[in-house]
Amino acid sequence: MSPHCLVLGGTQDARSLCLALAEFPAVQITLSLAGALGETARESFFSRMPPSMTKRISLRVGGFGGADGLARYISEQNVSFLVDATHPYAACMSAHAVEAARKTGIEIVRLERPPWRRHENEIWIEADDLFDAAQKIPFGATCLLAVGRQSLLPFHPITHCRFVVRSIAPSDLEGFRAPVETIQSLPGASVAAEESLMRDLGITCLVSKNSGGERAFHKVAAAHNLGLDIVMVARPSLPQCRQYCDVKSVMEELISHFGAD
Q1: Which long-range contacts link 100-105 to residues 24+ away (Cβ below 8 Å)?
Q2: C-alpha 54: how far from its chain's center?
Q3: Which of 57, 74, 89, 260 has the fewest beta carbons closer than 10 A?
Q4: Nearest by Cα to 239 from 54, 99, 51, 73
């Protein structure tokens, strides 16, 4: 029976890992995406993959039903290795992954990009979590919320600013007490593009999760260049497992485990 690797995805790193794994025909690959990503995001996830590679990767969309549901899936599908390549803030899914791996006895590693480090000349308003971030938005700000459409609830009660919500999939703005509008797009392809967007929208404050990654940092660099307030939300604590910060290191682990040639 072919070894079966389940990749819990939703990040660029997950896509890159699946592409690398697809070079090994003896390995069965399943990529799991959360249903919350929406049709647009799912299409985007595979749009830049060569067709020959996408045929090697089975796509599964939707939740598992907690750690027990994931453990059942692992057993039923004969998964032999689990890679958690979800977003660094997907704390619930990461906890379920570690617990499911423990229940089934399979190996698990986490692929998590390093967090951004504030440079000496940069000023961030540090926030412990999203609720803390909502309280630290300056009075009268026009705030670009770049935290994901499922992380908006903590900002609903805030009334002392105006919000612009940016997300890949459509956002539900019901519940906001402050003026709010939405833009549906990927992060800007360059710092200059993010600067242009922020100037056009009159943004004075950016709220961001510390997601890591080069492209996602463009908005932070743009906000710094424009002298805007930057509220940075700290990463949540995740359960311990072996962790790598790049695809190459995970591939070395998988090749060693599977004995792939």
Answers
A1: 100/64, 100/67, 100/68, 100/70, 100/71, 100/74, 101/74, 101/241, 103/67, 103/68, 103/71, 104/71, 104/74, 104/75, 104/79
A2: 21
A3: 260
A4: 99
Residue 29: CB partners within 8 Å, gap ≥ 6? 4, 5, 7, 18, 21, 22, 56, 57, 58
Beta-bridge partners for 206: 144, 230
Q: Residue 91's pLDDT band (boundaries 50, 70, 90)?
A: very high
> Phi-psi bin for 202: left (phi > 0), alpha (psi -120 to 50), beta?
left
Among 19-28, 51-60, 216-225, 234-243, which stretch is predicted with the lowest mean pLDDT? 51-60
Give me the sign of the Cα torsion angle 84, 86, 90, 96. Answer: negative
What pTM value is reported for the model?
0.86
